[in-house]
Design brief:
heterodimer; A: about 280 residues; alpha/beta; 8-stranded mixed beta sheet; about 15% strand; globular; B: about 100 residues; alpha+beta; two-stranded antiparallel sheet; 4 strands; binds thiamine diphosphate; binds iron/sulfur cluster; binds magnesium ion
Chain lengths: ~280, ~100
């Protein structure tokens, strides 16, 4: 490997306090690295990248990266991202959100951004918990899992983020774990270079608020779990016993133009006096 | 990896950025990294490094770099080099417990 860490440092805001605010072994730092490497690999100029983050530990990522950044309110990252993309389609707009951010409080915004096929990338850091606020269950906390608001085990069923994105009409749907960082990089690069709404779900350990209450002894244990149980969809399909395994990879890859492109085409044809939808 | 591919790298851990999570030491395929008594990772068998890149990609704190050992390409010494301009930064508390909601 060459220059991996140097590349990251090129994009960090060195006037911030380091090390990162995250707990030891928090997967969010790996997602931050993946995001930076992906932008760098695609040669997108820093000034053309907009990172819109919600509130949560995941949202902290926006503070560290030297792109255009907006720290939105909890659950509303996609509303700002949508407005930014529609008003300036040449920007690469990335909404960085936690599972709570994107699918609990922000679930409604998520399904409609996907349905409208706005050309933004939703990067959802799924750690199955509200990390920042002390470990309350989120809409992705697995059935039976322990959290501060389900101390005897979660009684509710959880959302599958990939299923939600697919059912809502997203143009691209991808999932990978932070243990498989190279694959995460590849999927993120794919998402960033495709039209329309793209979801990348990153499975990322939160030992502090999730792992240690759910029988993991160390942050390393959580990485071992992802190593074993996050498997490529092709392999997953062939598993006889799928219990506990999480399929990863490419789930949807449609080529429909984003809403901003359709909007521009309609505007141009109306201006040319032809009228009607493209 | 064949033997001759080993030991061509300089593995540097930046202690000021390392939070001691142990991920690098747990998954390094060549057992190059170990956790030291100070709770930080250290490269104890650099000569065995197979340059797989795992540690560098998976350190959540960007506290490790793996570079060619060739001094022409990399003349800096590990001890006096820090990736940030500010090096001796205080360790931070758990984010989940000290931040406003
Ligand atoms: C409108 C509003 N409601 C609630 C909160 C409190 N709050 C802050 S972060 C958060 C959840 C964070 O969980 P998640 O989005 O999964 O991010 P993580 O910290 O796990 O990365 C909540 C409920 C808030 N800041 N604003
Ligand atoms: S509370 Fe969880 S998500 Fe937040 S920084 Fe700590 S490990 Fe990461
Ligand atoms: S992965 Fe990084 S932070 Fe964790 S022990 Fe290794 S060098 Fe330190
Ligand atoms: S590059 Fe691979 S072999 Fe070398 S120290 Fe890092 S994890 Fe170990
Ligand atoms: Mg979360």
């Amino acid at each position: 490997m060459a220059n991996v860490t140097q590349v990251i440092h090129k994009y960090l805001r060195h006037n911030k306090k380091f090390p990162l605010v995250f707990c030891p072994g928090c997967g969010h730092g790996i997602v931050l690295g993946s995001l930076v490497r992906s932008v760098d690999a695609l040669n997108i100029p820093q000034d053309k990248v907009v990172v819109v983050a919600g509130i949560g530990c995941s949202g902290r990522i926006a503070a560290y990266v030297d792109f255009n950044t907006v720290h939105a309110t909890h659950g509303r990252a996609l509303t700002l991202a949508t407005g930014i993309k529609m008003s300036n389609p040449e920007l690469t707009v990335i909404a960085v959100m936690g599972d709570g951010d994107a699918f609990s409080i922000g679930g409604n915004h998520f399904i409609h951004a996907a349905r409208r096929n706005v050309g933004v990338t939703a990067l959802v850091l799924n750690n199955f918990i509200y990390g920042m606020t002390g470990g309350q269950c989120s809409s992705t906390t697995p059935f039976g899992a322990y959290s501060h608001t389900s101390p005897f085990g979660q009684l509710e069923k959880s959302f599958d983020i990939v299923d939600m994105a697919r059912a809502s009409g997203a143009n691209g749907v991808f999932r990978e774990s932070v243990f498989h960082a190279k694959r995460l990089d590849a999927l993120l690069q794919k998402a960033l270079s495709r039209p329309g709404f793209n979801l990348v779900e990153a499975l990322t350990p939160c030992f502090t608020q999730y792992g240690r209450n759910n029988k993991f002894k160390t942050p390393v244990d959580m990485f071992s779990w992802l190593k074993k149980y996050a498997v490529p969809i092709e392999k997953y399909e062939k598993l006889e016993n799928k219990d506990g395994y999480i399929p990863t990879g490419v789930f949807v890859e449609k080529e429909e133009p984003g809403l901003e492109a359709r909007y521009a085409a309609m505007r141009d044809s109306l201006r040319a006096g032809k009228g009607g939808a493209a | 990896m064949t033997r001759k591919k080993k030991g061509k790298t300089k593995v540097t851990v930046y202690p000021a950025w390392c939070k001691g999570c142990g991920i690098c030491a747990a998954f390094c395929p060549a057992k190059v990294l170990e956790m030291g008594p100070d709770g930080k990772a250290r490269a104890v068998r650099e000569e065995d490094c197979v340059n797989c890149g795992f540690c560098e990609l998976h350190c959540p704190d960007f506290a490790i770099s793996v570079e060619p050992a060739d001094p022409e390409k990399n003349g800096k010494s590990a001890e006096d080099e820090s990736p940030a301009e500010e090096s001796a930064l205080p360790a931070r508390e758990h984010a989940g417990e000290n931040q406003p909601g």
